[in-house]
Automatic annotation (TrEMBL):
Belongs to the ABC transporter superfamily. This is Peptide ABC transporter ATP-binding protein. Pfam families: ABC_tran (PF00005), oligo_HPY (PF08352). Its main location: membrane. The lineage of its organism: Bacteria, Bacillati, Actinomycetota, Actinomycetes, Kitasatosporales. GO terms for cellular component: plasma membrane. It is found in: Cell membrane.
Length: 346
């Protein structure tokens, strides 16, 4: 996803994350690779259970090692994370890399003030005094647009609105100026106005700090607003990747096409019916053979020899662009055009 002459800040190679359960092995992530450069935003999109959040919790080292088998390589600024000690990861978390969670109310302690929680992170990683940490907390609340930050710093989470709590979470995540920020659907529970404000805030702070951002979502509209590059996940694997313009403007995988056609178009006719993807996401305990999307794919029967159900498609990436699909390019373009016309989308 990055240019060949630029060393990626984060590099993930052939990542596999498998969980042991009473019912068997859950292959939550099954061979994922991507890069992200400093100051860039990578949008990871897919349905629930596609492996988005698991991937990023693995980057942070937040899985139970007793129940999790992890293979592959994760390099953060050249430092290997999968073999790093817990002590090393603790120093990196909140300092060099940080995360904004989806549910701010559940992530914040109800027993401590907002300022105390932000200041605690800052003191742990910098050794600052209580006075210095409080001043830093007020500074960060100011930066994320909290009104009267010198007063609100002493409020508890329940005294903040949903949008204000999310801003406080962003302040906490950025208090140590991390170089990598992982945002796990941070706007899902917010109304569209507050959502737009949070997106603008993240972009402004990225410009100020030069932070690399991984933005996890199931909403392609959000991806269109914030991402530079896009990675589409399905069933624990990457099925398509490229720049935002490439993936959203010219999808090459049937799953990506399905996601786009299930969204309403704000600038089109209001009477165009949506085209939801039939069926349900695959079980990661017993995933389908071949292409994991083939049971739901509108084009699987067009591929000769039943290849979609028998052979796993290879993700071939050239200059950051690629998709994992058995359809030939000319065949795909014709089928996708007919599908879009039938569905009523341009």
């Amino acid at each position: 996803m990055t240019s060949t002459d630029q060393q990626p800040f984060l590099s993930v190679r052939d990542l596999k994350v498998h969980f042991s359960t009473e019912d068997g092995i859950v292959k939550a992530v099954d061979g994922l690779s991507f890069d992200i450069a400093r100051g860039q935003t990578l949008g990871i999109v897919g349905e629930s259970g596609s492996g988005k959040s698991v991937t990023n919790l693995t980057i942070l080292g937040l899985h139970d090692p007793a129940r999790t088998r992890i293979d592959g390589e994760i390099l953060l600024d050249g430092q290997e994370l999968l073999t790093a000690s817990e002590r090393t990861l603790e120093k990196l978390r909140g300092n060099k890399m940080s995360m904004i969670f989806q549910d701010a109310l559940a992530s914040l302690s109800p027993y401590h003030t907002i300022g105390t929680q932000i200041a605690e992170v800052y003191r742990k990683h910098t050794g600052a005094s209580k006075k210095e940490a409080r001043a830093r907390a007020i500074e960060m609340l100011t930066r994320v647009g909290i009104p009267q930050p010198d007063v609100r710093v002493d409020d508890y989470p329940h005294q903040f609105s949903g949008g204000m709590r999310q801003r406080a979470m962003i302040a906490m995540a950025l208090v140590c100026d991390p170089e990598l920020l992982i945002a796990d659907e941070p706007t899902t529970a917010l109304d569209v106005t507050v959502q737009a404000q949070i997106m603008d805030l993240l972009k402004d702070l990225q410009q100020e700090f030069g932070t690399a951002i991984i933005f996890i979502t199931h909403d392609l509209g959000v991806i269109a607003d914030i991402a530079d590059d896009v990675l589409v996940m399905y069933g624990g694997r990457c099925v398509e990747r490229g720049t935002k313009k490439q993936v959203l403007g010219n999808p090459q995988h049937p799953y990506t096409l399905g996601l786009l056609n299930s969204m309403p178009a704000l600038d089109g006719p209001v009477d165009v019916p949506l085209s939801p993807i039939p069926g349900s996401p695959p079980s990661l305990l017993n995933p389908p053979t071949g292409c994991r999307f083939h049971p739901r794919c509108a084009f699987a029967e067009k591929v000769a020899g039943g290849k979609c159900s028998s052979a796993q498609p290879v993700l071939e990436v050239i200059d950051g662009r690629g998709s994992a699909c058995h359809l030939e390019t000319s065949q795909r373009d014709a089928l996708f055009a007919d599908y879009a016309a039938t569905a009523g989308h341009n």
